[in-house]
């Protein structure tokens, strides 16, 4: 599915960018910046592949790592980090959303292939999409945003849940995946601009 | 071994409950509460299965995840978190102990099957039993209690060591495992009420 | 290659020692000290083996764990932690460097065997050499030094990159590996005493 691949590329770039920003803000050196960008963009997939007992995709295909390197080089050359926060700019929100949803879909599809149950599929969507950012936050001693705010991870869980539901009725192929993709993107953007939050207890 | 399975169920519930409490105390939202409960109860087994190169048990069997969900729903409905600390109540200590020992045993038995050596068996017992809580504490930026206090992890190591010893003399089956189980539970309760601690250096 | 094996043994000892120091400084108890030493020395290899889908070397061979136990016992008996910082002493820097370079080489060689690409080989060198220390720092809630300072991780990446380059031209065997080993050790010592740092951005 070309659309998914394009979305994954855009997502990888957005995730690498957000890793770059965090790293510069935390005053990491060049190696630290590389590790933070790389983990944010590709760490989730690495964890997913360990859980699924697959050869790590990132270590057998070149494109993802090349995207990360390109993002770091370009951002450094263009001194992006001096140009103010990108995290609230429209094009960043869109790219980040494309990444969130396409990564969730690829995680869920791989989990379905591995014959995981409902929770496996849903959590593999989550791990693939947000696992990298969480690992980065752990490294940098930050409480992962995922755990305390917003509707972000929930989009990922819902994408996984719907794909699991589809699989129970043998619904698969291009169209259903694209519908889930569009739904996920719309939901995340809506949640972002309406500032939806999950409830807390207590 | 039905007894072990029952102990694992009780343990899963106790671990999920303790994850729930920590999450509410840290003001996580619903997704965060789910992740914290899930990791505390089942994260250790996931790490164990990655190290042992097995399909993750939690993602191929439904019961563990359903227990976690049920714990969260019931605790929320009953507003358990408003009813004071459970962590020192007798029934919680017992349930938690059953979990600690049964998880340690299952970790050690799986490591023996994978033909790990002494250290592999002992550490796999530890990882299965306390790995989930440690991952949760890492996520939440807390220094895992395991590292600074009490006799908790040591019980797990001892259970692993004894089972490894048994295996060297081809002692296996129902009775020996139950003896180890009873020993572990007794040791942990004794350690708790006598407030045993490991020595520090320096 | 006997030289590599000797270097790995020396490295394991140095890494275990540095874990011991950190643990004592953080006032961990005996179990915590064991876990910190063990992870620092052998945690990187465990992560490597999970990523490469291999049975964990540490859990199928006894020597590494025995070295760790011996280091803890001897350090405790000799009260090493009362004799001032070792971390800047010449023999510690040398041993630590031997560990860094030999672990990087073994990580890269295993990644080449698993047919990983350039980034896989380079990162597997890094993970094997410094992954354990990073996991320990995460557990103890410290920002891993790797991310903020010095040339340490870079040596590891360069060792991986050179070995990957060699493999493209079918250069392998005793001599090339020894040349990389000597290069890595020299580079790290030079970087240490000249206080080289990677640049920061911003």
TrEMBL record, chains A, B, C:
InterPro entries reported for this sequence: Gly_transporter (IPR005115)
Transmembrane parts of this sequence: 6-23, 30-47, 59-78, 90-112, 118-139, 151-169, 175-193
Subcellular location(s) of the protein: Cell membrane
Domain Glycine transporter: start-end pairs: 6-74, 94-167
Membrane topology value: Multi-pass membrane protein
GO cellular component: plasma membrane
Keyword Transmembrane in record: yes
Pfam families in the record: Gly_transporter
Keywords assigned by UniProt, alphabetized: Cell membrane, Membrane, Transmembrane, Transmembrane helix
Family in the record: Belongs to the UPF0126 family.
PANTHER family registered for this protein in UniProt: INNER MEMBRANE PROTEIN, UPF0126 INNER MEMBRANE PROTEIN YADS-RELATED
Designated name of the protein: Membrane protein
Organismal lineage: Bacteria, Pseudomonadati, Campylobacterota, Epsilonproteobacteria, Campylobacterales
């Amino acid at each position: 599915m070309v659309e998914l691949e394009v979305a994954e590329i855009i997502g990888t770039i957005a995730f690498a960018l957000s890793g770059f920003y965090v790293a510069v803000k935390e005053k990491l050196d060049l190696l630290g910046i590389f590790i933070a960008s790389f983990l944010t963009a590709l760490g989730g997939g690495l964890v997913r592949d360990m859980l699924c007992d697959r050869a790590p995709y990132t270590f057998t295909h070149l494109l993802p790592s090349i995207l990360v390197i390109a993002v770091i080089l370009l951002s450094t050359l263009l001194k992006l980090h001096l140009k103010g926060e990108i995290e609230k700019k429209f094009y960043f929100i869109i790219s980040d959303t494309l990444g969130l949803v396409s990564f969730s879909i690829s995680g869920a599809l791989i989990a379905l292939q591995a014959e995981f149950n409902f929770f496996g599929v849903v959590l593999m969507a989550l791990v693939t999409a947000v696992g990298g950012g969480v690992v980065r936050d752990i490294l940098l001693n930050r409480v992962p945003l995922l755990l305390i705010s917003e509707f972000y991870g929930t989009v990922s869980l819902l994408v996984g849940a719907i794909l699991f539901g589809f699989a129970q009725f043998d619904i698969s192929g291009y169209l259903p995946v694209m519908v889930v993709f569009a739904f996920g993107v719309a939901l995340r953007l809506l949640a972002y601009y309406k500032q939806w939050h999950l409830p807390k207890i207590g």
